[in-house]
Amino acid sequence: MSSSTAATCFPAEVVPKAPEDALFGLMRAYRADESPDKVDLGIGAYRDDNAKPWVLPVVKKADDVIRNDPELNHEYLPIVGLEPFTSKAAELILGSNSPALTEKRTSTVQTISGTGAVHLGALFLSRFYKVNGANRTVYLPNPTWANHNQILTNVGLQVASYPYFDKDTRGLAYDGMLDAIRSAPERSIILLHPCAHNPTGVDPTEEQWRAIAEVMKEKKHFPFFDCAYQGFASGDLDRDASAVRYFIEQGFELLISQSFSKNLGLYGERAGCLHYIAAPGPSAQEVTTRVSSQLAVLQRSEISNPPIYGAKVAATVLNDPALFAEWRENLQTMSGRIIDMRKALRSKLEELGTPGTWNHITDQIGMFSFTGLNEQQVANLQKEYHIYMTKNGRISMAGLNTRNVDYVAKAVDQVVRETQ
């Protein structure tokens, strides 16, 4: 065979080797570490006090219900998903008495968890967000979930950023955020985390959300909410959805990505939804029908039919009052343990007199905390103490437990003192 015949169609200059995903590379390094003291603070999944994955008790009960159903089968779902799941998922995020539901101006499509919902929503915007002077740039908080940028640019959307995290206060860069949203061209797409912002753990207050909505309404911006932590952040499903519901009350047309990975522990089952909400008005139902039809076409061309099992688990919990009540208790267990770990870490750092202020550990909410540790300190923690976290100092609070929080606090104290 000649060299020309054997040559690849994909030489290195055309298909360069991509770098390893940073988070998965961190996980690989952690698994390869043989130290008995190692601590994983990078994992984006809940762990119990024994550092083990926790199957929610309510999910185990739902599993039993599904397995014992004589009608159980593995047939295809409809293109838009399992209706007992999608209808209740919409009620969960919007509120069962939402005017958007009663006025039939919502469309819901089951997706491959939140990632698939962001992708489907982005693909829809890429195809159809073109009229009335729409600006097809998506404004992302800085920082945001690492995958947002790639998902959006993969479908041809432009991205820009707005200030979100204030490194000095380790809180919300509120004034900068408002100024950037106000300065963005009219009808821009603004991506928002309604609760438990990833990666910072910093959320706007209720008053700040109202001001953000007011500015966005003035500029005719399009909100795209990415909600991965409803109920997991505060333990209260309604509180964690309050920003979304306020925007709907204000008459916005918007998209919502919804994931059940964290709050039901269905990480590998990939259960999620994308919701479109039309603005109120005489044509709202007709607009919703057209959007629904195009979302179904896009879904058909990409995955054809969504996966069934995780949707059945979620639907079983959402439609059974007793199981739903138990789920609320499970959410309190998870969010409560994380809040306790925040308190413990802050308390131990302050007891040690660790240089700096550490109130941000308890001021932040949800799974993640932006510690304020710099890249060198993070590297030292990994090398010297076998403590793994992302380079930007983000830690998963679920990786802390009563057995390792003392060790982590003392290690942080040491590296902060050594690098001052």
UniProtKB/TrEMBL annotation:
One GO process term, biological-process aspect: aspartate biosynthetic process
Note: In eukaryotes there are cytoplasmic, mitochondrial and chloroplastic isozymes.
Top-level taxonomic group: Eukaryota
CDD domains, alphabetized: AAT_like
Cofactor: pyridoxal 5'-phosphate
Pfam families given in the database record: Aminotran_1_2
NCBIfam families: PRK09257.1
EC class: transferase
Annotated keywords: Aminotransferase, Pyridoxal phosphate, Transferase
Subunit structure: Homodimer.
A molecular function (GO) term: pyridoxal phosphate binding
Signal peptide: none
Entry's Gene Ontology cellular component terms: cytosol
Residue span(s) of domain Aminotransferase class I/classII large: 37-411
Species of the source: Coniochaeta pulveracea
Annotated family: Belongs to the class-I pyridoxal-phosphate-dependent aminotransferase family.
Enzyme Commission number: 2.6.1.1
Catalysed reaction, written as an equation: L-aspartate + 2-oxoglutarate = oxaloacetate + L-glutamate
Name of the protein in its database record: Aspartate aminotransferase
Recorded name of the encoding gene: AAT2
